[in-house]
Amino acid sequence: MREMIEIRTHSALHVLKGATRKVLGAKWTASTYVNGPHGRLTVQFERKPTEEEINRIFVEAQNKINEGLPFITEKLSREEAEKKYGDEIYDLFPVPPEVKELYIVIIPEWNINACNKQHVSNTKEIGEIKLDHWRYRNAKKLLEISFNVI
User: Fold this and answer.
1) Residues of 76-105 as b/e, b for ≥16 C-beta within 10 angstroms?
2) Which residues pair with residue 114 across a beta bridge?
3) What strand order describes the sheet that includes 29-35?
4) What pLDDT digit, counting tens, does each position of 101-145 carry?
5) Can you give the residue ranges of the Threonyl/alanyl tRNA synthetase SAD domain (predicted)?
């Protein structure tokens, strides 16, 4: 049971990242965290967002979840993946150089990431996500967004 909720929570990170990119233009993920229904996405961002922007991120994310978009996974050599997708597939935390094959997780026209975790088959399976809290760490230029999957 706990495993399924963590799959939903992890999948929600991908949707939330797409919404954060759409609303704020934040490209780089600094870290992610999942524990049961609780998740946290930390992205690099140059300023403190407004409450309105944070709320828009969650509206956009929930709309994508409600669309029931597929999670598509491609297994490619690292070289092929980088040629096809460039640095879009990466985060700030590096994939070790010895990793020669990548799983590329795609939510069409929303999010793309190298990720070797398990995901739901479509966004509707995530359910609902609710903002828990957020904070902006000005010294590090990091935005932390904590949420819960319901």
Assistant:
1) beeeebbeebeeebbbeeeeeeeeeebbbb
2) 104
3) 29-35, 38-44, 142-149, 129-137
4) 999 999 999 999 999 999 999 999 999 999 999 999 999 999 999
5) 104-131
Q: Check residue 1 and give its pLDDT.
A: 60
- Residue-wise pLDDT for 49-78, tens only, equals 999 999 999 999 999 999 999 999 999 999
- CB-neighbour burial class of residue 67 (10 A; exposed 0-12, middle 13-18, buried 19+): middle
**Closest by alpha carbon to 64, among 19, 32, 28?**
19
Radius of gyration of the chain (CA): 15
Domains and CATH numbers, the chain: 2-149 (3.30.980.10)
Per the listing, tokens 């961002």 go with 45
Please count the other Cβ atoms lying within 10 Å of the Cβ belonging to residue 60.
19
Look at the pTM and tell me if it is higher than 0.90.
yes
